[in-house]
Every structure is written in structure tokens, then in C-alpha cells.
Design a protein that fits this description.
Elements (H helix, E strand, L loop, with lengths): L1 H15 L16 E4 L3 E2 L8 H16 L3 E2 L6 E15 L16 E14 L7 E12 L4 H25 L3
Helix pairs in contact: 2-3
């Protein structure tokens, strides 16, 4: 019984010295603030609202998945970057027999968004990075893309912002 109690005390003490979250990320106690700069849209194909949507989605991801405050005044870390590519291309799903899938009765398209992200960690500069993040979504090409585009953009942007958040904070 004493061994079990001692083990529980050791485990509790070990966990009390670090910050742990159950979503796979852990942010150090000294990290309190971040700044998210506007992600400019430098893609050849430009959707006017994409830059603001990406910037705000990243802020919302940080607010919803951490206790970090977003500030412009001496932040502990800074996110910046730009949208470098936005692409819509036809695609086909190929099955194991190297033929068009029977489930794919309508033509498919793929929306891809690529973002160059720079994360500057002012507390631990070794955790800073600059790299591209790209995500895509396949969708049936029903001929009415303009109605699908806002929802598809949101889905891909949500994937990208989650990747940015995970890349910045999964190392801790």
C-alpha cells in the first residue's frame, strides 16, 4: 500500500512541474502571449476573403485550444506568413485495378491551399521555424463551384490552421 501511495505522489509531483494538455500539445507556463500577423495573399489565383479568413481562423484556433492571449504588445511568440498558392484542379480517384472508381460517378476536383508560415518563439528561439504548409480537399465537381467554394475554403483553412498550431506547440 505504501508503494502505491509513493508512486502516486511521484507521478503527481512529476506532472505538477509541466503544463500538459490532452489534445497532444503542451505549452510552457512562461508562454502567455502570441501575436498573429496578417497572412497576405500572394497566390496567383486570389480569393479576396481568404487572407482575413486564414488569419482569423488561426487566432480562433489559438483561443479555442490554449489559454494564450493574443496581443501586439511584446508577445512571447509571433505567427506570420503568406498564402503562396491556391489551386483547383480536376482529379480522378483510381481504384486497385488502376481504373476509375465505381463510387466516383461524377468528376472530382481538388482544392489546394499552400501557406508559408513563420513562427518566432521569443522565449525559446530553437523552437522557431519557417516552412510551407499545404492542405487539400477533394470534392465532386457538380458544376456549381461558386456555391461550394466558401465552405471548401473554410474546411481547408481549418486544416491548415490546425497544422500551424500543432507544428508550433507539439514540440513542448
Amino acid at each position: 500500500m505504501k508503494k502505491i501511495l509513493l508512486l502516486l505522489v511521484v507521478v503527481a509531483f512529476g506532472f505538477s512541474s509541466c503544463s500538459i494538455k490532452f489534445n497532444g500539445t503542451s505549452i510552457p507556463k512562461e508562454m502567455k502571449t502570441v501575436n498573429v500577423l496578417f497572412f497576405e495573399n500572394n497566390a496567383t489565383l486570389v480569393v479576396p476573403s481568404m487572407a482575413i479568413n486564414l488569419t482569423e481562423a488561426l487566432k480562433n484556433t489559438i483561443r479555442n485550444q490554449s489559454s494564450l492571449n493574443i496581443t501586439t504588445n511584446n508577445p512571447n511568440a509571433v505567427f506570420s506568413g503568406n498564402i503562396t498558392s491556391y489551386d483547383i484542379r480536376p482529379t480522378t480517384i483510381i481504384d486497385a485495378n488502376n481504373s476509375r472508381s465505381a463510387a466516383n460517378t461524377s468528376p472530382m476536383s481538388r482544392m489546394t491551399i499552400r501557406v508559408n508560415v513563420k513562427y518566432t518563439d521569443n522565449i525559446n528561439p530553437k523552437l522557431s521555424f519557417e516552412e510551407p504548409i499545404e492542405r487539400f480537399i477533394d470534392f465532386p465537381n457538380t458544376g456549381n463551384f461558386s456555391q461550394q467554394e466558401p465552405d471548401l475554403n473554410k474546411k481547408v483553412i481549418d486544416l491548415i490552421t490546425q497544422d500551424i498550431f500543432n507544428r508550433a506547440f507539439e514540440n513542448w
